[in-house]
């Protein structure tokens, strides 16, 4: 059996979009129960309550989760409010403890997915389980690692699988905590359309303001649900406070979501997929242009310090010839490429002129 053969009927148990919500970290029994109660009282369609029990942190000496005691709080949430429960596991010990506590859905985090040895350990500890196991994309943009993690789980007869798109780390400073890189996630979805995919807007955005837009964008291209960090008092959260929302805000967000029923096979879904990819590429173009202009600023400073003229004809001819060559290689219009490079060059001259005049 391979990944394309598994049925993944587990997703049919839930209405779509399938929503998973709860705090980034379990902090206390009171915090867990209050968050669960308020989610339930909003009547939002949230069947699954999540909480981080163990928290992998970038640096030592930070809050790394309450540990096993938090699983008892998850059990109380299930008993008192009827939620199914979900948590992250990062090693065999976590798996054993979560299974003993009868957690319904387990997920493998981005930092674990990137390490095949860790995934193999988790897979062997889960061998043959009927629990649903979700795999977040690895922190770095590597589709093969993502697929490989699922194959390791399938190799241990784990058949109820899904994935979570939580964005990818980058050293560049952008408006996202983790860049969506929609292309990678949609390549996965295109290759494995029967594996349910959820969006994790909390980790993509890193703040509260973009959650609704990212979630809707994911639903537009056929994702089946979302996992959103929700806390009874987000501003006082012990971890990732900026990206958590209250149960009431969550309910409003869910109410305003629109599910695209046609999926990728239909016109609307396919159109949405293309538009999402265009938006992603446009964002990358803007980021690259911004970087280019910053380099132009440095060149402008050097020219000023050394009394060098801004416009260098030889350099412009080299850039133009290269652009024409690339247009030919890619089959794009020569005129179009020349217009783009002319506009970029003119902006670069303006940037350098500003430095010459103002410094």
Automatic annotation (TrEMBL):
It comes from the Bacteria. Its EC number is 5.4.99.5. Keywords: Transferase. Residues 265-356 form the Chorismate mutase domain. The keyword ATP-binding does not apply. Gene3D superfamilies: Aldolase class I, Chorismate mutase. Pfam families: CM_2, DAHP_synth_1. PROSITE patterns: CHORISMATE_MUT_2. SUPFAM superfamilies: Aldolase, Chorismate mutase II. InterPro entries: Aldolase_TIM, Chorismate_II_sf, Class-I_DAHP_synthase, CM_dom_sf, CM_II_prokaryot, DAHP1/KDSA. This is chorismate mutase.
